[in-house]
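The instructor's notes for this session suggest beginning with a concrete chain rather than abstract definitions. Hand out the sequence below and ask the class to guess, before any prediction is shown, which regions might be ordered.
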Amino acid sequence: MWRLSLSPRPSRLPTGTTGEDASSRMDSFIDIEEYTYDLPAEKIAAYPLPQRDQSKLLVYRHGTITHARFDGLDEFVPGNAILFFNDTKVIPARLLFQKETGAEIEIFLLNPLRPTLLAEAMQSSGTVQWQCSIGNLKRWNDGRVLVKQNETGSLQARLINREEGIVEFAGPLRPFAEVILSFGDTPLPPYIKRKAEPIDRERYQTIYSQASGAVAAPTAGLHFTKRVLDNLQHRGILTDFLTLHVSAGTFLPVKVRNAITHDMHAEQVIVSESAILHLLLPDRPVLAVGTTSLRTLESLYWYGVKLLDDPEAEFTIQKLDPYEARKITPTKEESFRAKKHPSTFYRDIRSGWSMDSSPIFINHSQRYCC
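After discussion, reveal the predicted structure:
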C-alpha cells in the first residue's frame, strides 16, 4: 500500500532544473489569501444535466478562451495522446443512526483501520474498524452500541476511540461494500446544499468506476459517456486507468494563512503494469483526466526520482518531496526506468512499504496497490 500525500505546488520544476535554482525560487510562505475567490451559490449546480456529455466545455487554446460542449471533447485532444482515468468508485460513506431518544448520530467513513487496505476492507465480511467523522458525538455515550435496521438485517456501530473517531462495525455476513450499500447514503460534497437522493447513487459516479473506496467522486470524469469514449477511440486516442481512492481530506478547509503548514491527508493508490508501460510509450502526450489522476501520475514520477537517490526508498510521497534540493531533475523516462528495466521497478513496488508499515497489496490482475 502506498499512502499518497497531496501538496500545494507554487511552481513546477522543468526538466534539468538544479536543486539550488529550485530552492531559491521555492517560497517558504504560500499565502492562502492569494487563492481565495468568490463563487456565487447560484453558479453551483445542485443537480447534474439529464445527459452527462451535454455540459459546457471551456477550451483554452493559443491564449484564447472559447466555449464548447463536452460531447465534442475528441476534437480538442491530440490524436496521439493517451488519457488516464481514475476508476475509483464512490461508496455510500454517510451512515445515519437514530437513538431511542430520537437523537441522530451521523457517522462518515474516512479511512479503514482493520483491515487497512480499502480493497480488503470492502470485501471483509466480519467486523471492521474505520476512522470516522462523527456528527453529534456528544450524544453518543461510551459503550453504547448504535443499531440501524432495514429489510436486509441490522448494522451495529460501537465507539472504540472517541478522540480519534474509531468505530467498529458489525453487520450481516456479507462484504462490507454490500453492507454499506444497503445502509449508507451517498456523500455529496459540502458545496451541494441538499440531501442525497436515490439518483445520486448513479449520477455521482463515473460510468467507468470499478474499485470501491472513494468518499468523493473524481468529478472531472463525471461528464464522460460511452459516446465520448467511443469518439476518442475512433480517433486512435489511447485510454488507461489507475485508481486513487479520494478521501474526505479533499474537502478539508485550509485554516492556516501559510498553505505550506496545512496538514495534508493521505490516499491509497492502485497502478497497473500496463499504465506504467503506457507512460513509457514514445511520442504519446499524457493527459490526466482530473486532479486525482494527475497527482497519481506525478507521485509515480517522484517515486522514481526517490529510487534514483535511494534504491531502498519507501513507496510514499510527502507533500514537499518534489522541492527537496537535488542536482538535477530526471526525465520521465529516467524516473520510470530507475532500476534499469521496468520489471525491476515493479519488484521495487511489490516490496515497498507504506507510512504505516503495511505491505503493498497486489491482486491477480497485476495492479499494484501503492
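Then share the key points. Residues 31 and 183 are 42 Å apart (CA to CA). The domain at 93-184 is CATH 2.40.10 (Thrombin, subunit H).
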